[in-house]
Task: structure prediction
Amino acid sequence: MRLGKLVRTGAIAAATAVAGQAGVALAAEPPESNDPIVVIKNNWTSQLVQANVMRDLFERMGYNVEFKPAGVQAQFTAMALGDLHVQVEAWEGTAKDPFMEQVNAGKVIDAGAHEASTREDWWYPTYVEEEYCPGLPDWRALNKCVEELATASTYPKGRYLGGPVQWEKPAEERVEALGLNFEVVHAGSGSALWSELKSAYQRKEPIIMFNWTPNWVHAKYDGKYVEFPEWHPKCETDPSWGVNPDKAYDCGNVKDGWVKKAVWSGMKEKWPCAFETVKNYKTSNEQIAKMAAMVVVDEMDPDGAAEQWIDENSNLVNKWIPDRCQ
Ligand code: TMO
Result:
């Protein structure tokens, strides 16, 4: 796979040498850096599959690639320093602030949005509304179902099962700002969330948890998001905005959010073909949900899922790699 790039670089070098002998200047591109491009791995499945797809494409183009794990909030500072280079799935609902801070500082490049439209918020299987909390999805119903939603460890408060800490905006602050009689319990991982969902669903027990769209979950489980007061940028920065005049975060998360690619600002010069490929790379809600399902439902590892996904989408993938870089 690497051969393609090596041959291409070799051919350019040979052409340049010949041209040099003849005294003719050739506008050949210089070979790109052999330093490894560091692709970020987060800890949810669609991101892991997309990171593997990106790695495979880079390797196909002849680059050296490294994979490094990083947290959603911390990754952008490392990217600003040039220690990490490519993030394939930055979600508006959770990553916007640390991402845009570095974009505004000129340290990170916004490499464009996917086609997908996203949501990340409190969610429940539909039977919860029917059997335990009839006023849902309106958030004001939550405090009427505290007992039903309590667990042994959160009683007398209800339980909100959040995702791992770095995934979310501070759910604790929302609980406080909206006066919810709930305790936030953070799941340690995505699979911990799904195993709680599965066991609650089988027994038709109440559960309110973090979930997101696109995801594999919606094809298997019928559910809804809690409808909080509409998100507004001021809700997070201006305490006087919204239903609670003294506190920020008195709103839901953004609906119809973006998911973008982010790259280190030096990438454009150091690995221009890779940079353009990242910009061209775009996936839809269906594609992202499928990638997650390949891992969680079909039990493939992210590496194998990425390989299969590339095989099944080779026309699309070939279009992402600019012609001059093939
Ligand atoms: C960042 N996430 C998709 C887990 O909400």
The beta strands are 37-41, 65-69, 86-91, 108-113, 119-125, 158-162, 182-186, 209-213, 223-225, 259-264.
